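Tutorial, part two.
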Amino acid sequence: MRSFSVISLSIGLVLLLTQGGFAVDPSKHEEPLSPSDSNMIEQLLSLADDPNPYARIEAIERLHLWRQDPRAAAALKTAVHDEIWLVRRTALGLGHGTLGDSIEPLADKQVDAASQIVLLKQGNEPERISAALRLAWADQPEAVDALIRALKHKESIVRSAAADALGADPLNASRATETVLNALKEGAADSDRWVREKSLNGVGRFLFGDYKARTIEFLGKAAQNENDSSVRVAAVHSLRSAQTKRSSEILIPFLNDAAPEVRAEAAGGVHLECFPRGSAPLIKALYDPDPSVRREAAFSLGQAQDRKALQPLVDALVDSDEAVRLAAAQSLGDLKDPEAIPQMEKIAEQDPSEEVRRAIRRSVRSIENDGTSLLASRLFKFISKWKPLPGHCRG
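Running the prediction step on this input gives:
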């Protein structure tokens, strides 16, 4: 049986050779498919039926590149109703299916936990992986115990599936226990990066109640001590959802991480309502060489009560990346500072993107409809600096 890593590597190499990278988006043009494109789609369609659910996930993520092709579209539509919840969630996350579709279990709820536990112990590799993922939705204590044991399995891909299942979202009430949290923390120290990544995603589900403060500190240390950028992304992404003063404080140093995807997650996780001092490093991030970092920083600065953020956001309206300009336009509307209106109106007439022009005009109308004078706006921002932090910022 082919391992997931071999599948991933082979697909990646072929895509790199035939497409010059993963950024190709056939929806951007109407040219007919080349023979190499068509051959790649056929290979991916075969993988979309692989018994290994992780292989199916990899296939649909790649098929998304050719979503205008009828064959790829049909496979993506089928994936929305896959028997494994994680495959369905991936397909829905890529924009396939309707809002009425759900990642809640279809067949999973009717699966007998006892039979899946047997498969988890005795089945072949794809059966063990599928059994673990099905057990994500089983509330029985024996299912949880089986998944915790599977975190010690000799095969890393089975350990990954067990970590995925233990930290499934939404987290089942029966899983929100100290025992599960400790098991996921152990998984975060696994020798395999995939297991660490999925374990840290699971740990991030414990950002509530008495777990919250401890979980924030654990995720911060895990990110600081991790050498693999994809695992740091998982830890920082989990921290991003905490939205507290402490989590924002921990994320600030990651704005200087070597990996742009880590910097982007950190920029999106600094919550200025809870940590106003974060505005200065976020303003600096507006000039990051990576557009995803600039975009996230622009969005986060929409919470700023610091007038120093105003002109950098106006400057971001002429960024080379359209998504950054859109984020800056939205944040300027959130700031509601009338001082920005003249420059916004001028830029709105010059932007090459109609979507950006509309976004800037919407923000201008929002500021004008707010009716706050420039003096009142300044006074409000000044007073806001002295307000006590909201309750949700603690933790």
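Residues 116 and 131 are 5 Å apart (CA to CA). In part three we will examine how such features are distributed along the chain.
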